[in-house]
């Protein structure tokens, strides 16, 4: 964007509508039509960061071995942040400390390393974060009239980058669209890049990550709230502003003077402040396996790539919308689950250590049953669909190793689609029933040349059409996205092949640190450690510009009680379970999904069948959607292209999707919602919320009228 020179008078930098007035200057300011302040400024707050990766397993004591120590010095404040497989979003996996001494390849710190960090040190990274830095200059706002309104903008400069901020306003609309373009002036790694909304108006409503609404007018929040990509309403019916879903942003936080993350985004001096994070460390995690440091693979060296390093001249853009005025109706929040369901559950399976018999037990109830229609238990009996990962081939005849009576024995080859016609036939049956068949890896190890890997991957996804990828053990297979699969210079790179095959949704264990370590938790949005903690369901990374990484949990089967399933529904939660359903039973592994009966035959367990029945009952009641990861993630991705336009007596949904979004759902506090342009279905929830869903046409719009509660 080319900046226009600042106008010579304040009046030429003003723009008025019936909903608000814009006033230019150093930055910009919005006031009500009566002249009272609505938003005083969008204040920049950012911090830089340096990353140091663990180079050898942690030991008890105060010494940490790193891949490099350049730039570290005694008295430096650092945070040891642990991102192991599951659970590092909790504060117990972060250790704030100070550097005491710096050696050739290690540092000494001023605190003892707790035992649980030594035990789970596989994903350790050291953060050295700068102080929260301000802008060095803010340019005068410019304003250009358009046929329907005006465009205003200004420039913010720092030592590391400049941001051009553009605001589009329409005469008849109560919202403004803001676009930021950040251009880096020097190489830079950012911990966060945030805009703080400075307003004299108190926060009235908070829109939480599960799309519930919390009224905070009587008591303002005393601790930070991580809102994911939702927002807040400030002010009252006579004067206010609102920010709703923000898919382009990294995250949104309500900052307070109370409890927050160890590395708090920015200080809050007085009343709670909304932070719009254009970039943030907690928004996306991605770690790449580098090498095994121990012979038993118990510790790997990782390169942490969660904070992308920007080169000089790099540009990033972000967009968000601010609704202004005193006549804003109930806030519609795009629901996380389509078709009027309150919550969702997904089964995702890993391909390791299975046989045809164990598969038939998990899916059909008994190893002797070969057809879906004969199922006596398992997934097929209760109508469940699974995102099921498999190996395409097993050219080295990689064996299933099981331990029985203290002896390691072989239970045949690991199943692979291309080596077992019976297994291929079973997958065809499951595919016809709506299961999502995806790849775990081409083979259980680096058994084939990379050229053949690419051909097999393309063929497999052409056959089954899955959009999902579930990474196999990244220490074994170099084409894994958690090892070399996304490195453009690697002989094992598969990113281009994945993109051509339409694969868009990725899981890799090296980046699954938002998983709850507590195996009793099935709701991925739930956290017992505080609302200030990030628990995203999915996130994007520069390595995967057209895809997203999704979160999962590994709850024990015993966690799926009726009470837990009802709580998942009540909390409007999301459960994405990843496990090994047909995994062979031995002395080391008994996950509870299958077992051997008195005749030595594999069968689905009574407990597994009971859980499947309970989920099916809640699906039939219209409360719990049971679906595949690909279907749910596609809905999430499509909803990121939906914008909301507030109107005095309703709202309009605008879709940027090329396809119909079936069952597109919103939640708002209202008595009824109607539309002349679509079939609208609805049902009442708790706390006065109404769940509304409709089919949103390709690149279309639906205007809805709202009848508010008296």
Give me some keywords for this one.
4 domains, 710 residues, TIM Barrel, eleven-stranded antiparallel beta sheet, Beta-galactosidase, Chain A, domain 5, ten-stranded antiparallel beta sheet, 9 helices, mainly beta, disordered N terminus, 38% strand, globular
How many extended strands?
A: 48
Taking all Cα atoms into account, the compactness measure Rg is 27 Å
| Mean pLDDT over the residues | 89
Q: What's the oligomerization state?
A: single chain
Q: Largest sheet at a glance?
A: 11 strands, antiparallel
| Helix content percent band | 10-25%
| CATH hierarchy class name of the largest domain | Alpha Beta
What secondary-structure arrangement, pairings included, does this model have?
Elements: E1 14-16, E2 21-25, E3 27-31, E4 37-39, E5 41-53, E6 63-65, E7 77-82, E8 94-102, E9 106-109, H1 115-119, E10 124-129, E11 137-138, E12 142-145, E13 149-157, E14 161-170, E15 175-184, E16 188-198, E17 203-207, E18 213-215, E19 225-226, E20 232-235, E21 240-243, E22 251-255, E23 273-280, E24 287-292, E25 300-304, E26 309-310, E27 315-324, E28 333-334, E29 343-349, H2 356-364, H3 378-381, E30 386-391, E31 399-404, E32 407-413, H4 421-432, E33 436-441, H5 450-464, E34 468-470, H6 495-500, E35 505-507, E36 538-541, E37 544-550, H7 562-570, E38 574-579, E39 594-596, E40 602-604, H8 606-620, E41 624-627, H9 629-639, E42 642-647, E43 650-655, E44 661-669, E45 672-674, E46 681-684, E47 689-696, E48 701-707
Parallel strand pairs: 29-30, 29-38, 29-41, 30-33, 34-35, 35-37
Antiparallel strand pairs: 1-2, 2-3, 3-4, 5-10, 5-16, 6-9, 7-8, 7-10, 8-9, 11-13, 12-13, 13-14, 14-15, 15-27, 16-23, 16-26, 17-18, 17-20, 19-22, 20-21, 21-27, 22-23, 24-25, 28-44, 31-32, 36-37, 39-40, 42-43, 43-48, 44-47, 45-48, 46-47
């Amino acid at each position: 964007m080319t900046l226009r020179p600042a106008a010579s008078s304040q009046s030429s930098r003003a723009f008025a509508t019936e909903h608000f007035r814009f006033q230019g200057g150093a930055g910009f300011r919005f006031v009500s039509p009566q002249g009272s302040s609505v938003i005083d400024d969008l204040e920049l707050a950012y911090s830089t960061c340096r990353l140091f990766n663990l180079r050898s397993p942690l030991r008890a004591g105060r010494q940490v071995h790193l891949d490099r120590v350049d730039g570290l010095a005694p008295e430096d404040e650092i945070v040891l942040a642990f991102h192991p497989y599951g659970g590092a979003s909790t504060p117990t996996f972060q250790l704030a400390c100070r550097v005491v001494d710096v050696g050739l390849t290690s540092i000494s710190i001023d605190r003892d390393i707790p035992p649980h960090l030594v035990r789970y040190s596989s994903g350790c990274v050291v953060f050295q974060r700068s102080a929260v830095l301000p802008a060095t200059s803010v340019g005068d706002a410019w304003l250009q009239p358009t046929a329907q309104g005006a465009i205003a903008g200004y420039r913010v400069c720092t030592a590391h980058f400049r941001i051009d901020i553009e605001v589009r306003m329409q005469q008849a609309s109560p919202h403004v669209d803001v676009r930021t373009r950040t251009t880096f002036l020097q190489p830079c790694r950012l911990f966060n890049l945030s805009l703080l909304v400075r307003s004299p108006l108190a926060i009235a409503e908070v829109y939480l990550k599960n799309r519930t609404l919390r009224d905070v007018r009587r008591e303002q929040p005393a601790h930070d709230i991580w809102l994911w990509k939702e927002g807040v309403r400030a002010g009252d019916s006579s004067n206010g502003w609102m920010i709703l879903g923000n898919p382009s942003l990294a995250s949104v936080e309500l900052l307070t003077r109370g409890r927050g993350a160890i590395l708090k985004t920015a200080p809050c001096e007085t009343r709670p402040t909304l932070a719009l994070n254009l970039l943030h460390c907690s928004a996306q995690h991605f770690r790449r396996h580098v090498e095994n440091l121990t012979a038993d693979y118990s510790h790997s060296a990782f390169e942490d790539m969660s904070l992308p390093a920007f080169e000089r001249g790099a540009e990033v853009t972000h967009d968000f919308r601010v609704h202004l005025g005193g006549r804003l109706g109930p806030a519609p929040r795009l629901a996380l689950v389509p078709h009027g369901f309150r919550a969702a559950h997904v089964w995702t399976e890993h391909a390791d250590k299975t046989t045809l018999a164990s598969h038939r037990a998990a899916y059909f109830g008994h190893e002797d049953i070969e057809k879906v229609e004969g199922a006596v238990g398992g997934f097929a009996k209760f109508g469940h669909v699974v995102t099921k990962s498999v190996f395409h081939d097993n050219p080295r005849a990689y064996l299933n190793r099981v331990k029985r009576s203290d002896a390691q024995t072989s239970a045949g080859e690991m199943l692979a689609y291309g080596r077992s016609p019976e297994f291929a036939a079973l997958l065809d049956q499951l595919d016809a029933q709506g299961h999502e068949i995806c790849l775990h890896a081409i083979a259980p190890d680096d058994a084939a040349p990379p050229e053949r890997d690419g051909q097999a991957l393309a063929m497999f996804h052409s056959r089954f059409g899955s959009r999902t990828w579930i990474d196999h053990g990244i220490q074994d297979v170099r084409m894994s996205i958690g090892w070399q699969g996304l490195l453009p210079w690697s002989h094992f790179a598969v990113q281009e092949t994945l993109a051509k095959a339409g694969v868009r949704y990725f899981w890799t264990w090296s980046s699954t640190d938002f998983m709850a370590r507590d195996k009793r938790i099935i709701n991925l949005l739930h956290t017992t450690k505080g609302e200030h903690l990030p628990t995203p369901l999915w996130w994007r990374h520069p390595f995967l510009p057209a895809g997203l990484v999704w979160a999962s949990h590994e709850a024990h089967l015993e966690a799926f009680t009726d009470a837990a399933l009802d709580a998942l529904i009540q909390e409007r939660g999301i459960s994405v379970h990843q496990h090994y359903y047909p995994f062979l039973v031995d002395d080391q592994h008994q996950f509870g999904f299958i077992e051997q009966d008195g005749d030595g035959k594999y069968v689905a367990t009574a407990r597994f069948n009971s859980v499947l029945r309970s989920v099916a009952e809640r699906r039939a009641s219209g409360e719990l959607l049971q679906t595949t990861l690909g279907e749910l993630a596609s809905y999430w991705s499509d909803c990121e292209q939906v914008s909301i336009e507030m109107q005095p007596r309703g709202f309009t949904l605008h879709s940027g999707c090329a396809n119909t979004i079936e069952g597109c759902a919103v939640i708002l506090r209202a008595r009824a919602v109607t539309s002349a342009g679509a079939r609208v279905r609805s049902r009442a929830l708790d706390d006065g919320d109404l769940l509304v869903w409709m089919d949103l046409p390709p690149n279309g719009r639906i205007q809805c009228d709202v009848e508010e509660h008296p």
